[in-house]
Each structure stands twice: as C-alpha cells, then as structure tokens.
Amino acid sequence: MNSFLFIFITFLVILPVNNGNPMQLTLLGSHHPVTASLREAIVLQCHLSPRTNVQNMEITWFRSHNSSYVHLYRSGKDHLERQQPEYQGRTEFLKDCIGDGKIGLKIFNVSLFDEGPYYCSVKNGSFQREATLDMKVAALGPAPLLSIEGYQDRGIRVVCRSSGWYPKPEVLWRELNGRLLSSLAKKDSQRNDGTFDVQADIILKGRSNLTCVIRNSLLGQEKESIIHITSESMKTVSSYSTFYELGFAIV
Fold first, then answer.
1. What GO MF terms are annotated (predicted)?
2. 240 membership: H or E segment, kind and range
3. d(C-alpha 101, C-alpha 98), whole Å
4. pLDDT tens-digit series, residues 69-105
5. What is the spatial distance between Cα 184 and Cα 168, in angstroms, rounded to a whole number?
6. Using CA atoms, how far apart are residues 80 and 90, in angstroms rounded to an integer?
C-alpha cells in the first residue's frame, strides 16, 4: 500500500512537466504593465506552459528586434558580449526556477530609460516562442514643503513645493473637511534625470488648516503636508507686507 501511494504521488508531481512535442508549448508574458520604482530593482518574468525545463534552451531578453539584447542566456551560461551598454552590470538571469519553465530577468538600479516594452524569446533548434510585457517606472518625491510667501489680493499666498516625482504628479489643496480648493497657479519643471519638480500657489483670506496633497496616480500613493493659518498669522503677514510696500515707495 505504501509503495503504491509513493508511485501515485510521484506520478502527480512529474505529470505537469512537458516532455512531448515542443510545438505544443506557449510562452506567456504579462497582460498588465509591471511597475518598477526608480533606482530600485525589478524582476521581469515570462513562462512556458505547460511548464518545461528551459535550462538548455536559448533565452533572450530584448527591447526591440532591431537592437542588441538586454540579456542572453544560452547553453547554461550568460552571454553578455553584445549586451546593450545601458544594461551592462545591471541585469541578472534568474536560474532558480528555470526547471519549471519560469524565465526571470532582474534589472537593478532602474532608470527612466528602462521604461517601455520588453520581449522574452525562447529558442531550441527550430522551436521558437516570443512573449511581450510592458514596464512602467514611477518615483515618489518627498512630502511637500509649505511656505508663506507674502500678502496678495487681501490674503496670504501659500506655496507648496516638492521634487523628484515621476510621472508628473497631481497637486491638490484640501481643507480638513475634505473640500478641495483651486490653486492660484501651478507650474512644473523636468530635471535632467526625467523626474518632475512641482509647485502650486493658493491665496488664503482667513484662518485655515490646509493640506497640500501630491499624488502619484500610477502608484496610487500620495504625500501631504498641513499648514495652520491663524488670525494672528494673517495680521502679521499683512502688517509686514504693508510696511515693505511703504518702505519700498519711500526709497
């Protein structure tokens, strides 16, 4: 009885592995974009179905059919002689699960250059399959910096700033009760590394507890800061602004 049970369990474990006609195999990528965090690592993955050992196959990751490869694995070894220069020293072919047909590529120190489509190719003699997936890159900046920058239109001008976001984020002003307020002005600029700096201004004409929210819609995450404007703050800024204007006129 024990011997029969062992044989039966072994049969169930081995059965899913494909040892038949390779033309029956399908290479699958991802139907949804994979999101990577800027300067972090990401694993791209495709797999053969039914699961099949790919250790002795040629596996290529590339960005387009007209470019050199991102990573090439062949005959059980990595071949990086013609690797794209932008990926040198930043890729690792994951070998732990190749016996199950899982083909993973780890990319380190993700940059905005890495964003876009990737192709995963498996070749064994005349047999060849190809799958695609799309990678998005995102970055969160720090919590916004709030500052009072003068008296304008009978109110206080409050400025919200943050930097290092990707893609360009949404900037919102929100009261404690959840009501959204319109910005007086918004502006953004793009850095050399492709990330965005953002700024939004608002005029407050009375005491308020106001939150500036910066939202990355791709990640579904946001950061916020709160500023408390009191009646005394309004008087102080108003008096300082009046003094400055009179002093400037006298000079």
1. signaling receptor binding
2. helix 231-250
3. 5
4. 999 999 899 999 999 999 999 999 999 989 899 999 9
5. 19
6. 11
Q: What gap in Å lies between CA 87 and CA 109, rounded to an integer?
A: 10
Of 191, 187, 199, which is closest to residue 166 (Cα–Cα)? 191
Count Cβ atoms below 10 Å from residue 39 Cβ, excluding itself. 12
Angle at alpha carbon of residue 156, lines to 151 and 158, rounded to 5°: 115
Calpha distance 84→95 (Å, rounded):
21
Q: Which pairing describes strands 34-37 and 127-138: parallel, antiparallel, or unpaired?
A: parallel
26-138 and 145-247 share one CATH topology?
A: yes
Instruction: Copy the structure tokens of residue 42.
Output: 């990401």
The mean pLDDT of 112-131, rounded to a whole number, is 94
CA separation for the pair 221, 211 (Å, rounded): 16
Angle of CA points 75, 42, 171, to nearest 5°: 160
Phi, psi dihedrals of residue 113, rounded to the nearest 5°: -60, -30
In the chain, what are the domain boundaries?
26-138, 145-247
φ and ψ at residue 58, rounded to 5 degrees? -95, 125
Most confident by average pLDDT, 9-13, 20-24, 129-133, 153-157: 129-133
For the segment(s) 26-138, the CATH number from 3.40.50.20, 3.40.30.10, 2.60.40.10, 3.40.50.720 is 2.60.40.10
What does the DSSP 8-state code read for residue 113?
G
Q: What is the pLDDT of residue 4?
A: 41
- The fold for domain 145-247 equals Immunoglobulin-like (2.60.40)
